[in-house]
Amino acid sequence: MSALASSFIAPPVFEFFQQLIAAESTRHGGISPFPFASLNVGLNTADSPENVQENRRRFFADLGIDESRIASSHQVHGDRILTVTEPGRFEGYDALITKLPNLFLTVTVADCTPILIYDARQQAVAAIHAGWRGTTARIVAKTVQAMQTQFGTQPADCHAYVGTCIDQCSFEVGNEVADQFDDVHKQFDPGRQKFMIDLKAANVAQLVQTGITHTQIGISPYSTVLNNADFFSYRSENGNTGRMLAVIGFQAID
């Protein structure tokens, strides 16, 4: 039995901001067959494009978002950040930022960490894709810095959500990857002879280092691997699986 039934999770850290829409999708409520069952919203999978489009339509409809107001990027596990001024599909960015209303930023994940940020004072948002490469490249810290430069964001005014991703007990890596992480975010497993990496904690640390307080950071309690019935996991499903979306944006005040 799945722990979740909805097509999305709304992070509690944002619940007091009525004009903000922020969520991450689950794998429930779509039409895709195995192995993409069922709400595969990934544009670059072997699933049928018709299925993916219907799944995306359902997900955005559940959130009350107009699909024509979506911005996304083909992610490359880098640290490039795009200031988004219009909806559309972009290329080569792993973080999107904007302060325009009714413009909804998305990142695609299936083990990597999605991070959503809302600057309540300047009315600005960010959606970040951070796998191990993005995390070690400090894309979260760079995104907060970009928001400061572009929008005058002060970290004290920000709330952030570190979303569902692979958990530390499932993410084993070799020395070449482990060497790029601080000791506090890795643990050596003698049985596997591998290091285990905590991506959530590493990205939380970057948020805190920028000046966002712990009390304004929410962390998903779920794991793509341990909760594979509810979320897609690229690693545990050997790459043949769907994708989730994390989305954030705010509606204009009438």
Write a concise keyword list for the protein shown above:
CNF1/YfiH-like putative cysteine hydrolases; about 250 residues; 5 helices; six-stranded mixed sheet; alpha/beta; about 25% strand
Quickly describe the structure.
The chain has five helices and 15 strands. The protein is of the alpha/beta class. It is globular and about 60 Å long.
Report strand %. Answer: 25-35%
Order of H and E elements: EEHEEEEEEEHHEEHEEHEE
The biggest beta sheet reads: 6 strands, mixed
Total beta-strand segments: 15
- From the N-terminal CA to the C-terminal CA, the straight-line distance is 42 Å
- The radius of gyration computed from the alpha-carbon positions, rounded to a whole number of angstroms, is 17 Å
* Major sheet: arrangement of strands: 1-2-15-7-3-5
At the fourth CATH level, what is the homologous superfamily? Answer: CNF1/YfiH-like putative cysteine hydrolases
The CATH architecture term is 4-Layer Sandwich
- Shape label: globular
- The poorly predicted ranges are none
Can you count the helices? 5
CATH class: Alpha Beta
How many distinct domains? Answer: 1
Helix fraction, binned, reads 10-25%
For this structure, the CATH topology is CNF1/YfiH-like putative cysteine hydrolases
Structural class: alpha/beta
Average the pLDDT over all residues and give the rounded result: 96
Pfam families: Cu-oxidase_4
Organism: Larkinella terrae
Protein name: Purine nucleoside phosphorylase
InterPro entries: Cu_polyphenol_OxRdtase (IPR003730), Cu_polyphenol_OxRdtase_sf (IPR038371), Cytotoxic_necrot_fac-like_cat (IPR011324)
